[in-house]
Amino acid sequence: MEYCLDCGGKLRGRPDKKFCDGYCRSHYNNELNKNKNAALKEINGILKKNAGILEKLGKIGLTTFTQQMLFIEGFDFKFFTHQAHGKHGEVYKCCYNYGYRFINDDELLLFIVPPA
Ligand SMILES: [Zn+2]
Prior knowledge:
It comes from Pedobacter hartonius. The protein has 116 residues and is α+β, with helices and mostly antiparallel strands. It contains two helices and five strands.
């Protein structure tokens, strides 16, 4: 016996059926999309926050800072948008147009990605 993926009701008819009807199918797909959008929103929020923190440090004139300074602000090192290369091939992790790279175990160098 198969059960509807949406409401859990018993399914009758074709053996490959997954939903009772069109209502259950569209309800199921809507819920799936809702969750997907919520996950995207959460990740975008983290990336924006990271970029904002780097921007703030840049605005007060800092080009180098410590890992601790970023942690205090709530920076999340797990999330970045892409990697960019400096003039000498150095690799910067970027959050949108702000990037950083470690210059030693604790200190980082700020990088503002030039507009393409
Ligand atoms: Zn159903």
